[in-house]
Amino acid sequence: MTAQLIDGKALSQQLRADVKARADQLKAKGIVPGLAVVLVGDNQASQVYVRNKVKSCEECGFHSVLEKYDANMTEAELLARVEALNNDPSIHGILVQLPLPKHIDDHKVIEAISPSKDVDGFHVASAGALMVGEVGFKACTPYGCMKMLESIGMKDLRGKHAVVIGRSNIVGKPMAMMLLAANATVTITHSGTADLAAMTRQADIIVAAVGKLNVLTADMVKPGAVVIDVGMNRNAEGKLCGDVDFDGVKEVAGYITPVPGGVGPMTITMLMVNTLESAERA
Ligand code: GUN
């Protein structure tokens, strides 16, 4: 193995210790950071995710509420809950876990969240703020990836070429904007890209975020490149794997993030950071 690991678990612990210290300072002034997590339906993966989010709140000394609703909750009922949370002064962040049941319009619900409490960074106002460089909440997964780059001394990315694989609203697009804001030259690749390997071979930084096994293999990576794996997949044996062929790519890359223990823990950590910052602004 030539690549050094970027340990998301260890970095998360460091960042969460700082979050807890700042939360303690706020508490001394009578403000307890509060996060509301709303889950509709019984999606198995979502149940695990929301449990972990609530657990992290407890570890950081935050107030949290978990609202669980039946899959047949109506859109109007959910919108009414969001409005109530928008008006609740003990709540600084609102997270509606996705996916929502099919009869509910995700976009409509996210747009109903007050941008001042949009700690997921999914609201159009948050995406727009990122695009124009204004203050707003950054989407947690790409924000965590930026912190991982910072942790290896890559804060200003002037002169670096970053290639993002995937163009989702939650990861690919905001990732590209954050890399650009850090002065990288950015290429976004996707299912319509003619020759993905030709792009990734030019990259100093590669972020793989498509949700497909082995999208990035060793022959596609420039020696010494930094590889960040956002994927969460199961292989044929049921083992948790990213989008990157880890065993092959680790022999070529300079740095690589593992799955599990890489980007995953960072996503929840950045949710804690956003919630704390929301409370600090309030
Ligand atoms: N579903 C999977 N990941 C996420 C996330 O980061 N936020 C929300 N709201 N839903 C998700």
From TrEMBL:
GO terms for biological process: L-histidine biosynthetic process; methionine biosynthetic process; purine nucleotide biosynthetic process; tetrahydrofolate interconversion. Residues 6-120 form the Tetrahydrofolate dehydrogenase/cyclohydrolase catalytic domain. SUPFAM superfamilies: Aminoacid dehydrogenase-like, N-terminal domain, NAD(P)-binding Rossmann-fold domains. It catalyses: (6R)-5,10-methylene-5,6,7,8-tetrahydrofolate + NADP(+) = (6R)-5,10-methenyltetrahydrofolate + NADPH; (6R)-5,10-methenyltetrahydrofolate + H2O = (6R)-10-formyltetrahydrofolate + H(+). Residues 139-281 form the Tetrahydrofolate dehydrogenase/cyclohydrolase NAD(P)-binding domain. NADP(+) binds at G166, R167, S168. Its EC number is 1.5.1.5, 3.5.4.9. One of its GO terms (molecular function) is methenyltetrahydrofolate cyclohydrolase activity. It holds the Pfam family THF_DHG_CYH_C. Keywords: Amino-acid biosynthesis, Histidine biosynthesis, Hydrolase, Methionine biosynthesis, Multifunctional enzyme, NADP, One-carbon metabolism, Oxidoreductase, Purine biosynthesis. PROSITE patterns: THF_DHG_CYH_1, THF_DHG_CYH_2. InterPro entries: Aminoacid_DH-like_N_sf, NAD(P)-bd_dom_sf, THF_DH/CycHdrlase, THF_DH/CycHdrlase_cat_dom, THF_DH/CycHdrlase_CS, THF_DH/CycHdrlase_NAD-bd_dom. Pathway: One-carbon metabolism; tetrahydrofolate interconversion. GO terms for cellular component: cytosol. The keyword Iron-sulfur does not apply. HAMAP family: THF_DHG_CYH (MF_01576). Catalyzes the oxidation of 5,10-methylenetetrahydrofolate to 5,10-methenyltetrahydrofolate and then the hydrolysis of 5,10-methenyltetrahydrofolate to 10-formyltetrahydrofolate. Belongs to the tetrahydrofolate dehydrogenase/cyclohydrolase family. Homodimer. This is Bifunctional protein FolD. The lineage of its organism: Bacteria, Pseudomonadati, Pseudomonadota, Betaproteobacteria, Burkholderiales.
